[in-house]
Specification:
By secondary structure, this protein is mainly alpha-helical. The protein contains six helices and four strands. A hairpin with a 6-residue loop joins strand 1 and strand 2 (73-75). Helix 4 packs across helix 5 (93-102). It is flat, with a radius of gyration of 30 Å.
Length: 131
């Protein structure tokens, strides 16, 4: 028995039918085409809305507000960062972690920078890389 004949005998008719090209993946149904078109239009609207929300958030973060305690004008982003730093100073652990990771002092990052991993491939050549 030939090896190729053995493999062909293992396939069922249903499996062989799945490999044939044909119209079964194409739809001439008008309702299906209309549904796909409406889905594409809705997707485009959703993407435009998300972009608009991002632009609005950028605008609001750049907007100037008056600091209640000092009376000076700062951006919303500066006010938020000041509030987070004040919470961190008061001992709020999550705020401390946020500040630490934002300024690049995360312990995991530091370990990766200090102690690179040595990877040795099958040929015996060594290559120093960080994770």
């Amino acid at each position: 028995m030939d090896c190729s004949q053995g493999l062909n005998n293992m396939r069922t008719d249903k499996q062989l039918d799945n490999l044939k090209r044909g119209k079964r993946f194409q739809s001439d149904d008008k309702a299906t085409k209309d549904s796909g078109r409406r889905g594409g239009i809705a997707s485009g609207e959703s993407k435009r809305k998300q972009k608009t929300m991002k632009e609005m958030l950028d605008y609001l973060l750049e907007k100037e507000v008056v600091n209640k305690s000092t009376g000076e004008k700062v951006t919303s982003l500066e006010a938020m960062m000041s509030a987070i730093v004040r919470k961190a100073i008061s001992g709020h652990v999550e705020s401390c972690k946020f500040v630490r990771s934002t300024i690049g002092q995360d312990p995991i990052t530091k370990i990766q920078e200090i102690d690179p991993v040595e990877i040795i491939d099958d040929t015996g050549k060594a290559d120093k890389k960080t994770k």
